[in-house]
Amino acid sequence: MASDLDHLLLVATPEKIYAISPEDTKGFLRQFQLMTEMGSLTDLPQFSVRPTVFMQEVWSDGRARVLILIGLR
Question: Rounded to two decimals, what is the model's pTM?
């Protein structure tokens, strides 16, 4: 069945996240990789995901901070 969770893929766009379940998941991923390696016909605008905001949120979580500090040993 195409809706099997083992074949579920999440596709993120700037506006939404879509859940798809292609019939041939491995073939879909191979083709996607090939198309990605070919590049874009148009220039894409550069953008930043602002990793500092992410790190601030992680650092404000006490459990995450402990795990980070333990991992540095």
Answer: 0.46
Nearest to 3 by CA among 23, 27, 32: 23
Gap between the Cα atoms of 21 and 51, Å rounded: 31
How would you label 41-73 residue by residue, b for 16+ Cβ within 10 Å and e otherwise?
Answer: eeeeeeeeeeeeeeeeeeeeeeeeeeeeeeeee
Residues 6+ apart with CB under 8 A from 21: 2, 3, 4, 7, 8, 9
Contacts of residue 24, defined as CB under 8 A and 6 or more positions apart, other chains included, come to: none
Q: Is the pLDDT of residue 64 over 90?
A: no
